[in-house]
C-alpha cells in the first residue's frame, strides 16, 4: 500500500517521469522505500488533559519512534525544572523501550509529572530530540490552568474546629491487641524453651528412663572384666592396675557388707571381714591387699602370672560372698542423692525466675509499643 501511494505521488508530482526511461528509477525507489520507512523518525508529545487545577499534577508523555540502530538523545528534563514560567516538572515517572517490526525499529517512551501554580492559558513550546545528531521537534502544546472555586461572598462560612472526643472504654476495642499479646508471649516462651534445650544440649522431648540398681557382685564383675581386658597397660603400670582392682573390691565390700570400706586401710578391712568370714576364706584376699600395698607404696614389682593370680583371687572372693538375687523380686530403683535433688530444685527455680522476668519484660515492651502505635494513629 505504501509503495503504491509513494509511486502515485511521484507520478502526480512529476508527470514527465513516465515511460521506459524512468521505469528503472521508479523501481529502485520502490525497493528503497522499506529501508526509508525504517529510517523514518516519529516524535510526539502529549498531555493526558488540557485543563488542570492549580497545584494538580498531570502526566506528560514523550514518544519517539526510530530505527533500532539509530542513536537517540531524549530531552534533558529533570524534576523541579521549569518548562515555562508557570509550569514545572514534578518528577520523572518512567522510561520504556519497545521493539517494533521484528526488532528493526524501536519506540522510546518517557513519562513525566507536571504541575502549574498560576491560573493562565499556558503555551508549551515544542520539545526537541536528536536522532543520529539531527534534531526533531514535536508539536507545541497548550494547557489551561484554572483556579479552585472559592466562595468570595460568604467568606465567614466555614466549619468550626471540633472538640476532643471522649470515647468510652470498650473491651471489644482491646480484644485483638490482648489476644495478639497472649499469642506473642506463647511464641516467645516456646522460643526461649527451645533455645534453652539447645544450649544445654538436651533433646526437645525427654524420655525418662528409670535406672535399675544392679546387685553389687554384678557391678564388681563388670568392672573386673574391664580391667581384665586391659592387660597391656597392666603389664606396664602395676600400680594403676592394683589401684583399680582394690578400689573395685572396696566398693563391692561396702555395698555387700554395709561398712565404709573405701575409707579404711587394708588391715582394717580384713579385720572387719573376719567377723563375717573365717580366716581361711580371707587368706587369698589378704595376700591380694598385701601385694597391692607393696606395689602402691613400696614400688614393688610384680610378674604377669602374679597379677593374674590376684585377679582370680578377687573373682573367687566375689563369687564366694555374693548374695543371689531372687528372680521374682521387684527390681530396686536407684535413688537420686539428696544433694543432687537440691541442686536440681535450685536450677529449676532459677529457670522459672528467668522465664518470668523475660515474660514480664516482653509483655511490657509489647504494651508500650502498642500504645505508641495507637498514639501515632
Folded structure, characterized:
The structure is a single chain. The chain has 377 residues and is an alpha+beta fold. It has 4 domains: 2-39, no CATH class; 43-146, Immunoglobulins (Immunoglobulin-like); 174-213 and 343-377, no CATH class; 216-321, no CATH class. Helix content is 48%, strand content 18%. The chain contains 10 helices and 10 strands. Helix 4 (216-229) runs antiparallel to helix 6 and helix 6 crosses helix 8. The longest helix has 39 residues, at 338-376. It is elongated. The two termini are 65 Å apart. Mean pLDDT is 76; it is low at 1-11, 16-22 and 32-38.
Describe how the helices and strands are arranged.
Elements (H helix, E strand, L loop, with lengths): L1 H12 L6 H20 L2 E6 L3 E3 L3 E11 L4 E2 L13 E14 L4 E12 L3 E5 L3 E4 L2 E4 L3 E6 L24 H29 L16 H14 L1 H6 L1 H20 L8 H8 L9 H15 L6 H18 L16 H39 L1
Parallel strand pairs: 2-10
Antiparallel strand pairs: 1-3, 3-6, 4-8, 5-6, 7-10, 8-9
Helix pairs in contact: 3-10, 4-6, 4-9, 6-8, 6-9, 8-9
Please trace the helix and strand order, writing H or E for each element: HHEEEEEEEEEEHHHHHHHH
Helices and strands: which structural class? alpha+beta
Strand fraction equals 15-25%
Radius of gyration: 52 Å
| Largest sheet, strands/sense/barrel | 4 strands, antiparallel
Gross geometry: elongated
Helix content: 40-55%
When the domains are counted, the total is: 4
**Widest sheet, order of strands:** 1-3-6-5
Through-space gap between termini: 65 Å
Amino acid at each position: 500500500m505504501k509503495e503504491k501511494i509513494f509511486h502515485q505521488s511521484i507520478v502526480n508530482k512529476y508527470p514527465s517521469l513516465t515511460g521506459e526511461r524512468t521505469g528503472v528509477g521508479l523501481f529502485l525507489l520502490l525497493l528503497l522505500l522499506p529501508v526509508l520507512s525504517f529510517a523514518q523518525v516519529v516524535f510526539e508529545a502529549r498531555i493526558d488533559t488540557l485543563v488542570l487545577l492549580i497545584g494538580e499534577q498531570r502526566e506528560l508523555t514523550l514518544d519517539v519512534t526510530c530505527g533500532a540502530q539509530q542513536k537517540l538523545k531524549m530531552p534533558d528534563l529533570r524534576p523541579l525544572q521549569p518548562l515555562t514560567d508557570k509550569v514545572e516538572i514534578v518528577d520523572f515517572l518512567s522510561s520504556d523501550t519497545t521493539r517494533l517490526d521484528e526488532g528493526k525499529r524501536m519506540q522510546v517512551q518517557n513519562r513525566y509529572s507536571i504541575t502549574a501554580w498560576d491560573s493562565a492559558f499556558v503555551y508549551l513550546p515544542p520539545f526537541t530530540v536528536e536522532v543520529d545528531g539531527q534534531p526533531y521537534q514535536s508539536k507545541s502544546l497548550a494547557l489551561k490552568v484554572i483556579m479552585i472555586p472559592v466562595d468570595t461572598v460568604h467568606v465567614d462560612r466555614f466549619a468550626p474546629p471540633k472538640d476532643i472526643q471522649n470515647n468510652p472504654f470498650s473491651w471489644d476495642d482491646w480484644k485483638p491487641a490482648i489476644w495478639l499479646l497472649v499469642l506473642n508471649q506463647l511464641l516467645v516462651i516456646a522460643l526461649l524453651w527451645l533455645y534453652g534445650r539447645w544450649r544445654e544440649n538436651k533433646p526437645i522431648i525427654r524420655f525418662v528412663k528409670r535406672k535399675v540398681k544392679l546387685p553389687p557382685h554384678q557391678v564388681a564383675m563388670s568392672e573386673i572384666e574391664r580391667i581384665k581386658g586391659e592387660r597391656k597397660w597392666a603389664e606396664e603400670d602395676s600400680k594403676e592396675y592394683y589401684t583399680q582392682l582394690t578400689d573395685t573390691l572396696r566398693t563391692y565390700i561396702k555395698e555387700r557388707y554395709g561398712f565404709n570400706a573405701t575409707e579404711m586401710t587394708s588391715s582394717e578391712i580384713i579385720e572387719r571381714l573376719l567377723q563375717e568370714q573365717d580366716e581361711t576364706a580371707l587368706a587369698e584376699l589378704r595376700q591380694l591387699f598385701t601385694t597391692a600395698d607393696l606395689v602402691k607404696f613400696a614400688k614393688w614389682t610384680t610378674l604377669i602370672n602374679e597379677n593374674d593370680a590376684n585377679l582370680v583371687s578377687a573373682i573367687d572372693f566375689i563369687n564366694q560372698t555374693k548374695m543371689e538375687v531372687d528372680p521374682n523380686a521387684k527390681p530396686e530403683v536407684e535413688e537420686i542423692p539428696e544433694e543432687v535433688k537440691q541442686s536440681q530444685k535450685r536450677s529449676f527455680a532459677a529457670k522459672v525466675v528467668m522465664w518470668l522476668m523475660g515474660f514480664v519484660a516482653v509483655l511490657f515492651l509489647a504494651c508500650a509499643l502498642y500504645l505508641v502505635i495507637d498514639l501515632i494513629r
